[in-house]
């Protein structure tokens, strides 16, 4: 092989490599995320809604698939985890994350860009949650304890109410009994004068009270004498007055 032929072969090989490189660059996808890292401060047990900005900076349409991994993967709810983007189109993918653990956790949102032809590429967004308070399980346990204590309190209150009702029933029974006895005593006291009257009323067989006849006669005689004395004194006064006037 002469020198000229060797030079042509090298030029052809170099052109082929460049062509392959150019084709690979043309056919390659670009994955772009607007906010690839988030730090969220929450209370344990709370939920928060956020979004991930996904951009298709390619000249071809792509299909987007979003999955989760990490500490709170089971507690992430993505509103729309599969959709398509046209060239130069972007979309906000909303999701809700719940802090079920206290402390700092890290969760991944994995985004795949899938073209109609060729290989897919992917990126991940990191969501860091800093939660304060009890873990979800600890919170549930504490609520269960509260419910149990509340149940015990209700049982105790029910027992106290039953006891109080029984005491009121016994007290009411005693009051009714005392009222009946008091009423009977009043009836006895009211009927007592009648009994006394009946006891002191003269009976049919009781002896009659008799006044001596001499006493009656003496009284009548005294009354007659008094009448006569009064009449005589009036006449004597009338006779005496004219004589005194004549003198």
CATH superfamily of one domain: Immunoglobulins
Helix content: 40-55%
What is the CATH topology classification name of one domain? Immunoglobulin-like
Helix and strand content put the structural class at alpha+beta
Please state the second-level CATH architecture of one domain: Sandwich
The sequence of SSEs as H and E is HEEEEEEEEEHH
Q: Ranges with pLDDT <50 over ≥5 residues?
A: 23-27, 190-210
Global shape: rod-shaped
Radius of gyration, whole Å: 64 Å
Task: Tell me the total number of β-strands.
Answer: 9
Strand order of the biggest β-sheet:
2-9-8-4-6
The level-1 CATH class of one domain: Mainly Beta
Provide the β-strand percentage band. Answer: 25-35%
Mean pLDDT, to the nearest integer, reads 75
Span between N and C termini? 222 Å
Largest sheet: 5 strands, mixed
Please give the count of helices. Answer: 3
Describe it for me?
Among the domains are: 28-133, Sandwich (Immunoglobulin-like); 136-200. 8% of the residues are buried. The protein is rod-shaped and about 215 Å long. Mean pLDDT is 75; it is low at 23-27 and 190-210. The protein has 3 helices and 9 strands. Helices cover 50% and strands 28% of the residues. It is of the alpha+beta class and 247 residues long. Strands 2-9-8-4-6 form a 5-stranded mixed β-sheet, with no helix packed on it. The chain has a 4-stranded antiparallel β-sheet with strand order 1-3-7-5, with no helix packed on it.
């Amino acid at each position: 092989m002469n020198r000229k032929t060797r030079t042509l072969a090298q030029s052809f090989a170099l052109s082929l490599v460049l062509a392959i490189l150019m084709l690979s660059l043309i056919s390659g996808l670009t994955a772009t995320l607007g906010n690839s890292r988030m730090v969220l401060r929450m209370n344990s047990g709370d939920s928060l809604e956020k979004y991930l900005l996904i951009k298709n900076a390619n000249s071809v349409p792509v299909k987007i698939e979003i999955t989760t991994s990490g500490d709170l993967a089971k507690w992430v709810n993505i509103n729309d985890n599969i959709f398509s983007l046209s060239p130069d189109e972007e979309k906000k993918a909303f999701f809700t994350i719940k802090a079920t653990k206290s402390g700092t956790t890290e969760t991944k949102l994995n985004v795949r860009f899938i073209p109609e032809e060729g290989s897919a590429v992917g990126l991940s967004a990191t969501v860091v949650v800093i939660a304060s308070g009890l873990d979800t399980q600890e919170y549930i346990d504490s609520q269960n304890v509260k419910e149990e204590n509340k149940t015990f309190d209700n049982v105790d209150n029910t027992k106290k109410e039953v006891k109080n009702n029984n005491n009121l029933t016994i007290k009411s029974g005693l009051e009714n009994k005392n009222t009946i006895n008091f009423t009977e005593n009043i009836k006895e006291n009211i009927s007592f004068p009648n009994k006394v009257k009946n006891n002191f009323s003269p009976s049919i067989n009781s002896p009659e009270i008799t006044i001596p006849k001499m006493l009656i006669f003496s009284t009548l005689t005294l009354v007659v004498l008094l009448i006569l004395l009064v009449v005589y004194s009036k006449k004597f006064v009338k006779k005496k007055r004219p004589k005194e006037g004549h003198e």
